[in-house]
Write a sequence for this structure.
């Protein structure tokens, strides 16, 4: 079923995002080092660097002759972490407050443990306090809720994250609903999603992965207003909020999903494509309008006999083909993946600033 | 500025829905009698009548030779009112409970007073109790909120509606937020909108006008799943929730708005068009794919020297041109307009049933 190379793929099949294994913050990426690429910041003519946000020009690697510029999420996420670290430090000095993120982990899943460890490390690296509760697999729902309530009441905690998936005997929705909206740094609370959808309303938090997608467009100076944007996938954690965010920025959005009959044709109309469907190499070169910008959220393991691990990670977009058509593209890994955790840190900082009215 | 006839229109200009004057339930229509049309129920071959819901076949008038079938909102809304009346009566007999709708009116606007009167009449006609508070223009925000709180606590009230617009010295958002989510029959609370947007979540109420649009499609047996749907307009009360509803029914949606650069081209891709922008005759025949189904939410007054009132009401779609291209279309008036109030009654009944766990 898994498609390793674009060239060997059969007709692409369309699967919902839910097939992907992901954690509560929508983090889909393993931390792999990017292949060395030539830094070509001088070639970034078409991407206005947002000097206000980043004093260094952003790097754009060129994958091959006449090919798309690479949107470097690893680099941008590093910039954001540095910015968060500076703000955390400034806040601590000014008012003596350190932002805190609490993670609730239930059960013994190794992948979940790894995600939680990575979040803890990321918090440490920027000076955010991290709190962790690890409960056994057979815990009762009420016990989990009790700990969440404790974090809700704890003024040193500014963000609460429940590591998903929860054990099957638990009601995910009622546990997530226990998280106070003021500390919902994942941004998945329906009240936050409703505010995101409504003009004139402001969500307290925006879900991390779609926020990371839009942040990449912003940091690379890619204009969104009036552009046609196609979001592939309509999951609650990526596709749907990504579409709402693009609409807030005045894009004309279309949402392609598993029931869409002419996904290729619709995608080809897009100036901006956000692919978040969890299907390796589904978006082929022929799906892409020349000059389009591609944000690839998918992180799919595919067989790779050349790798010592036996697999490699590819996106939802056939990178080799897309590079020849698009004007800019995020790589997999090293594109959207590292942005999710950076946005989580940023949301935690925002929460602490809001509570303490710190500008 | 106002365009009376499609044929005399200049290049269409695009204005946001907010230019329309509308009330809290998004009711844009005056109650005008429909011109007599020939009932041609035998010609409804392409529209499977939902016999489960309506025992009578639905009427479809044919406006002229080889033209679109008319989706008769006046008739469907009558069916729904009859269904609501039957359920209200059954509930009263079974458990002695009568649903109640409270309307809060502030100030002396004549149009608002008319809307409130119409809602009251509609309630009476189906056996729903109606409650009304009429406060003077110079009331304080706290006084309005006090009455809302009273209705929140009153078990005989199952729906609360604040008539908009409120006087300019009041904060609309904070007053609307005072309405308990369990009684938000308008469905405008961000928590309801968030649930509407999210897969696997259910809103307590769906906003009346977009719900009425989808209900018309259902009642006429028009399939939505897998269809391309274009929503023109992205207002909080119609366009945005209409798009979310269509997506819940597995349509592939695109949202066209004031910043869209090629609205005509995108609209022409649609199998289903919902126009809710408040611009008379904006959607011309050339915008419509042959065979498309059109739901026209706009109710725009345009000059009409032939009318004794000096004006007539037209939709956002040029009806004469659209009739020749579309397979089905809602007229203006008599299309979506009467559906809004029918959905308000239906939401109030739903609320009462939910509170009393009455199936």
């Amino acid at each position: 079923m898994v498609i390793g190379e674009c060239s060997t793929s059969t007709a692409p099949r369309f699967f919902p995002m839910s097939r992907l294994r992901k954690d509560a913050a929508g983090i889909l990426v393993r931390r792999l080092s990017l292949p060395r690429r030539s830094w070509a910041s001088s070639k970034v003519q078409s991407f206005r660097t947002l000097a206000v946000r980043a004093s260094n020009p952003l790097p754009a690697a060129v994958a091959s002759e006449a090919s798309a510029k690479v949107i470097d999420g690893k680099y941008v996420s590093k910039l954001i972490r540095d910015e968060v670290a500076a703000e955390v430090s400034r806040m601590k000095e000014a008012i003596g407050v350190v932002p805190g993120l609490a993670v609730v982990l239930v059960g013994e899943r190794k992948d979940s443990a790894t995600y939680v460890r990575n979040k803890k490390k990321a918090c440490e690296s920027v000076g955010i306090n991290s709190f962790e509760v690890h409960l056994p697999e057979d815990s009762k729902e009420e016990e989990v809720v009790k700990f969440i309530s404790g974090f809700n009441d704890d003024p040193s905690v500014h963000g609460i994250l429940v590591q998903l998936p929860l054990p099957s005997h638990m009601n995910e929705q009622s546990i997530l609903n226990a998280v106070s909206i003021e500390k919902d740094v994942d941004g998945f609370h329906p009240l936050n999603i409703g505010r995101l959808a409504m003009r004139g309303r402001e969500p307290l938090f925006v879900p991390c992965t779609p926020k990371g997608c839009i942040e990449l467009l912003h940091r690379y100076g890619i204009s969104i207003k009036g552009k046609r944007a196609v979001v592939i996938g309509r999951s609650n954690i990526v596709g749907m909020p990504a579409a709402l965010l693009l609409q807030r920025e005045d894009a004309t959005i279309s949402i392609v999903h598993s029931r869409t009959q002419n996904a290729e044709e619709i995608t080809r109309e897009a100036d901006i494509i956000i692919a978040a469907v969890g299907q390796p190499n589904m978006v082929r070169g022929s799906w892409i309008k020349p000059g389009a910008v591609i944000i690839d959220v998918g992180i799919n393991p595919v067989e790779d006999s050349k790798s010592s691990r036996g697999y490699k990670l590819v996106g939802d977009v056939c990178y080799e083909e897309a590079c020849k058509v698009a004007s800019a593209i995020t790589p997999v890994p090293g594109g959207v993946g590292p942005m999710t955790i950076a946005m989580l840190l940023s949301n935690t900082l925002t929460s602490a600033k809001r509570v303490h009215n710190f500008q």
